[in-house]
Amino acid sequence: MSLREATAENHKNAEKQPFVGIMFGGKLPDEVYAIYLWNLYLQYETLETFAHEAGVLNTDELAELYRAPKIKEDYKELWHRATPPPTLQTTLDFKKHLQGISGDPKALMAHCYTRHMGDLSGGQMLKARVPGSARMYDFDDTDTLKGKIREKLSDDLEDEVKIAYDFATKMFAEMLMYLPPELNKPSTPPPVNKVNSERIADGDVSWEEEE
User: Fold this and answer.
1) Architecture, CATH, for domain 3-177
2) What are the sequence ranges of the domains in the chain?
3) Contact between 11 and 62 (Cβ < 8 Å)
4) For residue range 18-50, what is the model confidence (pLDDT) as tens digits?
5) Cα–Cα distance list, 38 to 34, 35, 77, 86, 139 (Å)
6) pLDDT, tens digit, 9 for 90 and up, residues 83-129
7) 3-state helix, strand, coil in the chain (%, to 5)
8) Which of 3-12, 39-48, 92-101, 190-199 has the weakest average pLDDT?
């Protein structure tokens, strides 16, 4: 069983969250998305710092994967208050978890795989649907980067990949409290897959690459 197959249930549970449907439906208010971006920035900055120190990302072939600076730019574009947005409990828990695995390159790679492969795949559909410039989804060559990530994968990443998806699920659930009332119970149709012009099946938003 491949890593993708072994973690499919956790992956689908994350992408079925209502907050994901709202993002792909293009309905997310600027300020709510800014809160989301702020928390993504805190998470990615921590992950990418540890991954760099552990030798996971500090190579020329993966240099373009670093997303934290671009996420911060996207956040600043949309957040206009004097004080920063709220930090989610999920973000605090995630950073604590990363601290605990900071010396484990394979565990860190599992989280980079989950986050960055999503940015390279489903994120390419999402960037036209979210507020702002969506710089975090800009890459020069998504296919090459996907291949470089795949080269670093192994079946023993399964448990940590599941943990990564579960953290994403918790973040999406926690973000619901910041939605305006009219979006709290979304009825958003699944997005269109631009590759084949077919509507993606319910719950199959897919952060990952198509095979």
Assistant:
1) Up-down Bundle (1.20)
2) 3-177
3) no
4) 999 999 999 999 999 999 999 999 999 999 999
5) 6, 5, 11, 8, 20
6) 999 999 999 999 999 999 999 999 999 999 999 999 999 999 999 99
7) 65, 0, 35
8) 190-199
